[in-house]
Amino acid sequence: MKVILTAEVKGKGHEGDVVEVARGYAANYLLPRKMALVATPGNIKQLQSRMENINKRNATRMGDAQSVATSIEGMSIVLEAKAGLDGKLFGSVTTLMIEEAVAAQLGADIDHKRMDLHRPIKTTGEHHVVVSVFGDVKATLTVKVVPEGGAAALAAEEAAAAEAAVAKAAAAEAEALAAAELAAEEAAAAEAAAVEVDETSDDESGDSDTE
User: Fold this and answer.
1) What pLDDT shows up at residue 142?
2) Residue 203, SS3?
3) 189-209 burial by CB neighbour count: b if 16+ within 10 A, else e?
4) Residues with Cβ < 8 Å from 141, sequence gap 6 or more?
5) Can you give the pLDDT at residue 194?
6) Residue pLDDT, tens place only, 92-145
7) Domains and their CATH numbers in the chain
């Protein structure tokens, strides 16, 4: 049956879209939750008069979604969980846990119902999560799962790695500077040698003319 969506429905469309859905899906899910209206001629006529406002709302939502996606794309969050020595968790990391961690650590508001974990997170380590922020706007973030008490150790490890990277970059810069100075010295020495050769040639030419 045809319905008019009054809210975004994952995999179906956005507010204002007229879509074909199974009668049972509409009757048991969309209509009771006021996520859709039956696409009667009267409702379609009302929809046409409201489309300008609906399009404005969707444009605003799209802009907000792109900002959220940009803020979390490629970012990482850390979650502590009870785990055995083999790295297996006593339970699993839920999307709600990830939602709360993203809000606390990244300051972004995302809906846990829009996350794709690919498979349940039941081990420590890094796991990639795709978030469908709104419509086709998606972002991927990394969830680092560590044993309870391991967040501080991970933070110290990452800080040490960052410090080592800075030191390496500084050493490379110093090496490049030293190489440039050496090249300048060698060029200056070569230039001085060339001048000396020219002067010697001039002297020899003057002696020959005198004779």
Assistant:
1) 95
2) helix
3) eeeeeeeeeeeeeeeeeeeee
4) 72, 73, 74, 75, 76, 77, 102, 106, 128, 129, 131
5) 75
6) 999 999 999 999 999 999 999 899 988 899 999 999 999 999 888 999 999 999
7) 2-71 (3.40.5.10)
114 vs 160 pLDDT, higher one:
114
Q: Helices (H) and strands (E) in the chain — how many of each?
A: 4, 9
Alpha-carbon gap, residue 193 to 211, rounded angstroms? 28
Strand 125-134, strand 36-38: pairing: unpaired
What is d(CA 1, CA 63) in angstroms, rounded to the nearest whole number?
A: 32
Contacts of residue 99, Cβ cutoff 8 Å, sequence gap at least 6: 110, 111, 112, 115
Amino acid at 207: D
Report CA-CA distances (Å) from 100 to 95, 120, 135, 195.
9, 17, 22, 73
Q: Of the candidates 139, 120, 117, 119, which has an alpha carbon nearest to the alpha carbon of residue 129?
A: 117
For 94, residues 6+ apart whose C-beta sits below 8 A from its C-beta are: 112
- Cα 82 to its chain centre, rounded Å, is 27
Question: Taking the model in full, what pTM does it have?
Answer: 0.60
Write out pLDDT tens, residues 59-104: 999 999 999 999 999 999 999 999 998 999 999 999 999 999 999 9
